[in-house]
Amino acid sequence: MDSYDQLQTDVYYLAGRKRDYTAARDRIEIFAAKAQGTDSGRVTWLRGSVLREEGHLREAMVNFHVAADQLDGDPFLLAACLLDCGALANQTGDLSQAEATATRFFELVATHPEARQLEEVMYGIRGDTCYLRGDTLGAIDWYKQALRKLEDPSVASLPKEQLLCMVGLHWHSLARCYLSLGDLVRARFAIEGVRHCRHPDLLGLAACDECQVCLHIGALVQAEDWLDQAEQNIRNPQNRQYVLLGRIQLAQARGDMAAVGAYRQRLESEHDVILHEIQLQLEELPMKEGVQS
């Protein structure tokens, strides 16, 4: 029988790189049938990961919670699964669940030092929770802690590409914080940190951040150019929501309410769950009457 590690590699390739979710699910179920109940926690977790990649966030969350219960006897794997639970809770707007998951994680890490190398990810998740609650300064502190944690030898020994992606995500989080504060100088500095990663999705997110800078200063043509670049780079279905948000905001700035409505409809039709961060920003958009040329 194939090893679980080989299964995980295959599924991440099929779902994450090729976006062939049916093939990924089939691969999991063939393994599960042969395993006859062994590795049930990790298999359930992997099912949730595919659902998350596909954009079915509610179903993914159910699988993650079941997996966490099944992995209770393995502190390191449980801690890693809790990271997915916390991140997904933020994405769906269940901030109380995100905080409860973080508390469980830190209690686990306090008694199982082998899981401390995962703290950096939870620092980022806690930053997201603060940001979504409106505590932008608290969020900045958590993201900076995460970047400092990446200098720890236990984390710095990770493969270079993986490490760069982790750094890039935290810089993206800092960029959105500074943008929300209107601090465009620090936002641009953070965007350069994202761009340094060179990963396609992160380059796409950096372009979305650049679009937000342009919207702040009224440079609408340049904002559209950045969105076009973002669309070319972003592969993750969830991250495409940021492009659609930018399109909505740009149409709003131009007074083109027909386009605003069309992009909103597209956002709702293409995504099972709209990310909570996107929902919050949509709610802040003022509604205007009519369409300007």
Word description of this protein:
With 293 residues, the chain is an all-alpha fold. It is built from 16 helices and no strands. The model is unreliable at 288-293 (pLDDT under 50). α1 (4-17) runs parallel beside α3. The radius of gyration is 20 Å and the shape is globular.
Features of the shown structure:
disordered C terminus; 293 residues; single chain; globular
Annotate the secondary structure layout.
Layout: H1 4-17, H2 21-35, H3 40-54, H4 57-70, H5 75-92, H6 95-111, H7 119-133, H8 136-149, H9 153-156, H10 160-181, H11 184-195, H12 200-217, H13 220-233, H14 240-254, H15 257-270, H16 276-284
Helix pairs in contact: 1-2, 1-3, 2-3, 3-4, 3-5, 4-5, 5-6, 5-7, 6-7, 7-8, 7-10, 8-10, 10-11, 10-12, 11-12, 12-13, 12-14, 13-14, 14-15
Question: Brief description of this entry?
Answer:
This protein is mainly alpha-helical. It is 78% helix and 0% strand.
Mean pLDDT: 92
Supply Rg: 20 Å
Question: Unreliable stretches, pLDDT < 50, 5 or more residues?
Answer: 288-293
Give helix and strand order, one letter per element, not per position. HHHHHHHHHHHHHHHH
Number of strands: 0
Structural category is mainly alpha
Overall 3D shape: globular
Helix content: over 70%
- Please state the oligomeric state of the protein chains shown: single chain
Question: In whole angstroms, how far apart are the ends?
Answer: 64 Å
Provide the β-strand percentage band. Answer: under 5%
Largest sheet: none
**How many distinct helices?**
16
